[in-house]
Amino acid sequence: MPASSSDDYLLHVRDLILHFSTRRGIVRAVDGVSFSVRRGETLAIVGESGSGKSSTALGIVRILPRNVARYTGSIVFDGMELMRMDEEEFRRKVRIGGISMVFQGAMNSLNPVLRVGFQVAESLIVNLRVPKQEALRRAEEALELVGLNRSVAQRYPHELSGGMKQRALIAMALITNPKLVILDEPTSALDVMTQANIMNLLKRLKRDLGLTYIFITHDLALASELADRVAVMYGGRIAELGPADEVYPRPRHPYTKLLIESVPFLRYDRPPTFIPGSPPDLIEPPSGCRFHPRCPYFMKGKCDVQEPPLFRADGEHWASCWLLEEGRDA
Ligand SMILES: Nc1ncnc2c1ncn2[C@@H]1O[C@H](COP(=O)(O)OP(=O)(O)O)[C@@H](O)[C@H]1O
Ligand code: SF4
Ligand SMILES: [Mg+2]
């Protein structure tokens, strides 16, 4: 497994499982996910919608819906095992100054009746008991840091454009000086120009503040702009994990290969292809390799029977595919 206990690492997630109970049965949204994040790097988690990206992030920050059926594994953040912490310790050591998250679709969940500055300052006031005036001053600084005018603090959410709201959410995430920022599809609701501006902001913040990001997206081309390493999720598991400059030019999992070929931006030498079939049902996932019903390299009697472990392709590059055991390539 890709593991290291060195201090270079800020986060180790091992065998994370997060299942939900529904009337139809148990949804295995996250089903044995492991990865690590180094200090100062950006790990992109990419995959089709429904592959378990958001659930993985929610599992890390322990924001769980009521219908959780199973939540197990190990999450070591900054040397601390989060799974053993009670809620109070988690709040003190993780929610404040530890891990901040910009939630998918959060632009629409800003409180319409509260001024933006107060919403950015709120966690300082509520969690850190910073006096209100001081917290509001720091909120203005945080707004400035993300490229907004201080006066935005006095405005209400409906007075802001989509891009401004997204910047305010990033300010809100940064105000507690977190060590790790998780961004879940932070630009997917924005037009292309605004998306590019937000990506530039994220790059600048990474460079200037030395931030560590987990950047979640369904868009492989977007991930390539920010990622040092990439984890490709498929059906609640990691299909491939490796340095971005190895995974993009030389994907080792058939799913990643098809995903890259489906993005015109990344492969302009031929027309984009589409991945046949549909994403797996996470209540009754396919036997063996979850990708087997869609895989052009499917080996009967092997891929449909045994689940492939993550095999080392080279150095830090791993893929969960039996082809690697056989020394073949997709
Ligand atoms: N609270 C929940 N109850 C039941 N199923 C859920 C819940 N949250 C997510 N899911 C399901 O878990 C799977 C993974 O969802 P999600 O983590 O949101 O994927 P992604 O972020 O990659 O689109 C999907 O099938 C989704 O419908
Ligand atoms: S294990 Fe088999 S089915 Fe799965 S991706 Fe590899 S070749 Fe395809
Ligand atoms: Mg999601």
Comma- or semicolon-separated keywords:
binds adenosine-5'-diphosphate; alpha/beta; disordered N terminus; 4-stranded antiparallel sheet; Rossmann fold; binds magnesium ion; 330 residues; 12 strands; binds iron/sulfur cluster; single chain
Summarize the structure.
The protein is built from 10 helices and 12 strands.
DSSP, total strands: 12
- Give the CATH topology: Rossmann fold
Mean pLDDT: 93
User: Structural class, from secondary structure content?
Assistant: alpha/beta
Strand arrangement within the widest β-sheet reads 6-7-8-3-9-10-12-11
Q: Which regions are unreliable across 5 or more consecutive residues at pLDDT < 50?
A: 1-5
Bound molecules: adenosine-5'-diphosphate, iron/sulfur cluster, magnesium ion
Please write the CATH class name. Alpha Beta
User: So, the CATH homologous superfamily?
Assistant: P-loop containing nucleotide triphosphate hydrolases
**CATH-defined architecture:** 3-Layer(aba) Sandwich
Rg for CA atoms: 20 Å
In percent, how much strand structure appears in the residues? 15-25%
Major sheet attributes: 8 strands, mixed
SSE string, helix = H, strand = E?
Answer: EEEHEEHEHHHEHEHEEHHEEH
User: What is the number of domains?
Assistant: 1
User: How many helices does DSSP assign?
Assistant: 10
Distance N to C terminus: 21 Å
What's the overall geometry? globular
